[in-house]
């Protein structure tokens, strides 16, 4: 079959022309370089994931009692964050970081890096709020800091300071040089990114759903959606509400069995309300 080279060439040229259908063009937000950097660092990790669920009935009972007595509303995210910090406080090796090839750094402070969805320069995106030393702070203080992260002007006293906005406006090659230095020193990483990550984006969904994020942290908790299902309680079928969660862990540091034991202890703390 003869090939019409002129026709083939014209079709090839048409691929690079303006499409005949309407489209909208907008600048790529420079602050999304934060997400690109986090994913690039996260792909360097050998991450394992543990999906599990917790019964919401007791959790809601504890929260309602606390909120009534204290006159201050504690959100589900705040409660889970404080419980996670307390569970880590009992075994801080779960948030260890490698320093070189032959040493681990285990921090006493649990610095939670909580992802908060905000509008920045006209774009909605997740940014990080660090809750320093969360294992030693009361749940009310943590609740106030999360409230500030959600409401304070971005680039001032709240999340994403002016310096951070400037950094994520830099060229990729320059940011990579900075990340190499941060990656090499766990103390620098702690100052910049905290020690443990938390994302609750899955709570915006309905039905069973949880996000498995790409993360540069040794340990990251992803809070999923709540949903109802029928379970057996003393042989009787009852409907219960559950919340799905995922623990992502750096397998270079944490093995499966310790992660399972930690998840079990964390879930027990969630349901006994001891952090309140």
From TrEMBL:
It holds the Pfam family 2-oxoacid_dh. One of its GO terms (molecular function) is acyltransferase activity. Residues 54-148, 194-272 form the 2-oxoacid dehydrogenase acyltransferase catalytic domain. This is 2-oxoacid dehydrogenase acyltransferase catalytic domain-containing protein. It comes from Sulfuriferula nivalis. The lineage of its organism: Bacteria, Pseudomonadati, Pseudomonadota, Betaproteobacteria, Nitrosomonadales.
């Amino acid at each position: 079959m003869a090939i019409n080279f002129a026709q083939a060439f014209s079709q090839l040229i048409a691929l690079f022309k303006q499409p005949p259908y309407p489209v909208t063009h907008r600048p790529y937000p420079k602050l999304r370089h934060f997400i690109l950097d986090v994913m690039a660092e996260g792909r360097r990790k050998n991450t394992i994931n543990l999906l599990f669920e917790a019964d919401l009935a007791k959790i809601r009972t504890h929260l309602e009692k606390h909120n009534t007595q204290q006159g201050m509303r504690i959100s589900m995210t705040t409660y889970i964050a404080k419980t996670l910090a307390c569970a880590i406080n009992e075994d801080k090796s779960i948030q260890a970081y490698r320093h070189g090839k032959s040493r681990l750094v285990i921090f006493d402070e649990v610095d939670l890096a909580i992802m908060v969805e905000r509008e920045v320069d006209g774009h909605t995106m997740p940014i990080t709020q660090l809750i320093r030393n969360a294992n030693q702070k009361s749940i009310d203080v943590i609740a106030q800091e999360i409230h500030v992260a959600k409401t304070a002007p971005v680039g001032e006293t709240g999340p994403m300071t002016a310096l951070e906005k400037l950094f994520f406006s830099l060229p990729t090659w320059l940011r990579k040089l900075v990340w190499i230095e941060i990656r090499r020193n766990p103390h620098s990483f702690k100052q910049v990114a905290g020690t443990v990550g938390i994302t609750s984006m899955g709570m915006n969904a309905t039905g069973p759903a949880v996000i498995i994020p790409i993360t540069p942290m040794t340990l990251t908790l992803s809070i999923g959606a709540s949903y109802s299902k029928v379970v057996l309680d003393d042989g009787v079928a009852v409907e219960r509400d559950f919340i799905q969660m995922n623990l992502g862990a750096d397998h270079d540091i944490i093995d499966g069995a310790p992660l399972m034991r930690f998840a079990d202890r964390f879930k027990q703390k969630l349901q006994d309300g001891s952090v309140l």
